[in-house]
Every structure is written in structure tokens, then in C-alpha cells.
Design brief:
- By secondary structure, the protein is mainly α.
- The chain is built from twelve helices and three strands.
- The chain has helices at residues 27-54, 61-78, 81-90, 97-130, 135-138, 141-166, 184-189, 196-229, 234-242, 245-262, 271-295, 298-307, and strands at residues 14-17, 94-96, 176-177.
- It is globular, with a radius of gyration of 21 Å.
Length: 317
């Protein structure tokens, strides 16, 4: 067999996404399911943003970051699902070189931003419960805007750097990616040139986007738990910890799906397992977040009821 040819780095060649199934008979069902999930995700998250922005009672740090988390959810899902739906509809598996790198950039940026926002929201709950007298100062509008800007910069710069580094990599011909999106690790496996710097970048981004936010979240909840257990009345303990319930649920779902794949021994990894985990944290969780954050949140339900003209929110009871 001759030496494989390399992709023209001007971007004229395509990659091929295998998607979720190669069985033609399953494509209409997959299209319907993921189109429905995508529409629910977009409507739910945009409704959360609209409700928070329209109700003055929700103009607090907690809801400010929740609105940004909903925007991130919508953008994160939009970076991959529309292309998957388009490929199913057109019976094509192709994605252009430039399209693949563009998709990868937005996935890395919004995925990293999602992690950072989860950490900031945990910090918000930590200050509210553990240092309530300093809350107005520590979480002032200026501080919240600054934290949001830092999150954007921390995620945009590494994502852009990683994407630019990939433009220096030569890929072999017939580049098939066993996913429904341009997975960075799968891309590097198709390279015909040295990828040590790119692999180091992936490790660095994993520490910045995953490990550090998770450590901050765990630290915040350890301090929160300690403070809540010190409250004398059971009613007070429940009231304090109930403000963290929705956020903690999202954290457990998101990081649980990631750990279910990436902390397993390499011998247990498979493309099918990784696709299932990707569906969970890229499609399912962004769809569920609006329900998680509004289902048991009285303020959100009341604001939603006012927005929709019902006076009292009943749609999420």
C-alpha cells in the first residue's frame, strides 16, 4: 500500500462524519428525534433568557449567570446538531475542512464557557450562604460583568489557539471521523504529521476547562455543606441548601457523563460509548437545563406566568 496522500491545507478537502448510525432505515427516526430535541432546547433556553431579562425581580447575580448559561447551552448545541441534521436530511456525511475547524472552535469555546459558568455559579452560592454580609459587594453588577468577561477570555483564547494549531496539521486522505461532530481527539488520530503540540494543548485545555472548574465547584460545595450543617433549624438548613439544588443537579449530570467515558480504563473506551456520552452532555443536558432550573423555582415559574399572560405559572408544575 502506498503512502497516504495528505489533505490540501488550503481547506479544499472534506472530512466525513459517520454520525450516530450508518443504517439508512434509522435515519428518518434519528432526524425526527434530534430535530425535536433541538427545538425544545432552543425554545426552553431562549424562554429562560427572555423571562429573566423581562422581570426586574430576577435581575440578581444568580439569574444573570443562569441567563448566560442558557445562552451557552443554546450555542453549544447549535454548534453540532444543525450540521448533523443537515447531513441526515441530505444523505451526506461530508463536512468541509474549514467547516470542521469552525465547528471545533465553537464547541471548544462554548463547552469551556459552560464549565466556567458552572464554577462561577457555585461561587455565587458559596458567597450567598457562607458570606452573606459580603454578598452585595462580592457579587455586585460590576463584579459579575468582570467574571463573565474573564470566563469569555479564558475560553476563547485557548479554543482559538487550538483551532489555529490544527491548521498546521496535515491529514491523511479519506478522513473519516467516527462521530456526529468534529471531535478533536478523533481528528488528531487522522493526522499524517507530528501532533505532539496539539495533544499537549488538549491536555492543557482539559485542565483549564474541566479540572480547575470542577475543583472550584467541589470546594464551594464542601464549604456550603459545612455552613448549612451549622444552621440550627432543619427548616433553615433546607431553605439554604434548596437554592443549590438545581445547580448541583446540572453539575452532577454534566460531569457524571464526562467521567463515565474519560475516567474509564482505555480498554473500555469505544466510539459507541463516546457517542452516547457526547449525546448526553451536548444534546440532552442542554435540553433538560431549562426544566431543571425552572421546575422547582417559584420565582421562575411566577415570572414565566406573567410573561405568558397567565398570571400564575402552571405549565411547569
Amino acid at each position: 500500500m502506498g503512502k497516504p496522500s495528505k489533505v490540501n491545507q488550503s481547506g479544499s478537502s472534506d472530512f466525513f462524519l459517520l454520525g450516530l448510525s450508518e443504517q439508512p432505515g434509522e435515519q428518518p427516526l434519528l432526524f425526527g428525534i434530534f430535530l425535536g430535541m433541538y427545538l425544545v432546547t432552543m425554545v426552553g433556553n431562549l424562554l429562560i433568557i427572555l423571562v429573566i431579562s423581562s422581570d426586574a425581580h430576577l435581575h440578581t447575580p444568580m439569574y444573570f449567570f443562569l441567563a448566560n448559561l442558557s445562552l451557552t447551552d443554546a450555542c453549544f448545541t447549535s454548534a453540532s446538531v444543525p450540521k448533523m441534521l443537515a447531513n441526515i436530511h441530505t444523505h451526506s456525511q461530508a463536512i468541509s475542512y474549514s467547516g470542521c475547524l469552525t465547528q471545533l472552535y465553537f464547541l471548544l469555546m462554548f463547552g469551556g464557557l459552560y464549565n466556567c459558568l458552572l464554577a462561577v455559579m457555585a461561587y455565587d452560592r458559596y458567597v450567598a450562604i457562607c458570606q452573606p454580609l459580603h454578598y452585595n459587594t462580592a457579587m455586585s453588577p460590576q463584579q459579575c460583568a468582570l467574571m463573565l468577561c474573564v470566563c469569555w477570555m479564558l475560553t476563547n483564547c485557548p479554543a482559538l489557539m487550538h483551532t489555529l494549531l490544527l491548521t498546521r496539521v496535515a491529514f491523511c486522505a479519506h478522513t473519516v471521523i467516527p462521530h456526529f461532530y468534529c471531535d478533536p481527539s478523533a481528528l488528531l488520530k487522522l493526522a499524517c504529521s507530528d501532533t505532539h503540540i496539539n495533544e499537549l494543548m488538549i491536555i492543557t485545555m482539559g485542565l483549564v476547562f474541566l479540572a480547575i472548574p470542577l475543583v472550584l465547584i467541589v470546594f464551594s460545595y464542601v464549604r456550603i455543606s459545612w455552613a448549612v450543617l451549622g444552621i440550627p433549624s432543619s427548616g433553615g438548613r433546607w431553605k439554604a441548601f434548596s437554592t443549590c439544588g438545581s445547580h448541583l443537579t446540572v453539575v452532577l449530570l454534566f460531569y457524571g457523563s464526562l467521567m463515565g467515558v474519560y475516567l474509564l480504563p482505555p480498554s473500555t473506551h469505544s466510539a459507541e460509548r463516546e457517542r452516547r456520552a457526547a449525546i448526553l452532555y451536548m444534546v440532552v443536558i442542554p435540553m433538560l437545563n431549562p426544566f431543571i432550573y425552572s421546575l422547582r423555582n417559584r420565582d421562575m415559574k411566577e415570572a414565566m406566568g406573567k410573561l405568558l399572560g397567565g398570571g400564575k405559572a402552571v405549565i411547569l408544575l
